């Protein structure tokens, strides 16, 4: 095992699922650690200092959401939830507690690996380019220093709210952000229920930066959750 292999902690109480996830990730060269409860997960996280956490929500000594909140008190590592809970409320609760992504069981190996790699890339990129002032995707460039957005070399007219919405999404690539998270970040805490604001401004942004606003490639809808920025 390479010393530079990313360390991933799997917190899952169902032995068969835990073994499947561990083997799937280990085959890709990741360094894997395991836990089967909230308490053990926190101990392993504090000891091993993983670069990513993959966890179930239904654990024998508590809820995985509590583990997420505890982790977020001292760590910003990517957290991917694997859960059989399909309700929108469960997804939103986990994301607002600090999870970066949510994958519903049952899931395939390919999707699991793709999401793990995406979050590790994002985490590595943020660490390496913390001072970067330019975000580029497709033929769009966001200049954070000048607060401008250009497409194919032409400066776009974006309103202050459109700019805040776009840059907040772009700052969290591949993360599923809930409606409430986006509303609070862009409009403030008094607008956490005004989802119609979000739909209107997202529609306007898509018309400006997507080649086909009806089938967006970068500002993608996460059904029942919110939106995801795909570079």
UniProtKB/TrEMBL annotation:
Species, as recorded: Variovorax paradoxus
Alphabetically ordered keywords of this record: Cytoplasm, DNA-binding, Phosphoprotein, Transcription, Transcription regulation, Two-component regulatory system
GN (gene name): kdpE2
PROSITE patterns per the UniProt record, alphabetical: OMPR_PHOB, RESPONSE_REGULATORY
Annotated OmpR/PhoB-type domain residues: 132-231
Residue spans binding DNA: 132-231
GO cellular component terms given for this protein: cytosol; protein-DNA complex
Residue span, Response regulatory domain: 7-120
Modified residues (4-aspartylphosphate): 56
InterPro entries on file: CheY-like_superfamily, OmpR/PhoB-type_DNA-bd, Sig_transdc_resp-reg_receiver, WalR-like, WH-like_DNA-bd_sf
GO biological process, one term: positive regulation of DNA-templated transcription
Pfam families reported for this sequence: Response_reg (PF00072), Trans_reg_C (PF00486)
Molecular function terms, GO-annotated: cis-regulatory region sequence-specific DNA binding; identical protein binding; phosphorelay response regulator activity
Domain of life: Bacteria
Subcellular location: Cytoplasm
Primary location group: cytoplasm
Name of this chain's protein: KDP operon transcriptional regulatory protein KdpE
């Amino acid at each position: 095992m390479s010393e530079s292999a990313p360390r991933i902690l799997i917190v899952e109480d169902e032995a068969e699922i835990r073994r499947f996830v561990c083997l799937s990730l280990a085959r890709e060269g990741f360094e894997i650690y395991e836990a089967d409860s909230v308490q053990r997960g926190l101990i392993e996280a504090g000891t091993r200092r993983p670069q990513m956490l993959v966890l179930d929500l239904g654990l024998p000594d508590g809820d995985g959401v509590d583990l997420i909140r505890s982790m977020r008190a001292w760590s910003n590592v990517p957290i991917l939830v694997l859960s059989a809970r399909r309700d929108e409320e469960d997804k939103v609760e986990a994301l607002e507690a600090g999870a970066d992504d949510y994958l519903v069981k049952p899931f395939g190996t390919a999707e699991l690996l793709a999401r793990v790699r995406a979050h590790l890339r994002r985490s590595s990129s943020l660490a390496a380019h913390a001072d970067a002032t330019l975000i580029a995707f497709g033929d769009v460039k966001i200049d954070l220093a000048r607060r401008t957005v250009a497409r194919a070399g032409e400066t776009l007219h974006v309103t202050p709210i459109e700019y805040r919405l776009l840059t907040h999404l772009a700052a969290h690539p591949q993360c599923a952000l809930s409606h409430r998270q986006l509303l609070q970040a862009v409009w403030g805490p008094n607008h956490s229920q005004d989802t119609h604001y979000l739909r209107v401004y997202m529609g306007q942004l898509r018309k400006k930066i997507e080649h086909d606003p009806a089938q967006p490639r970068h500002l993608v809808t996460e059904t029942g959750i919110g939106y995801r920025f795909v570079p």
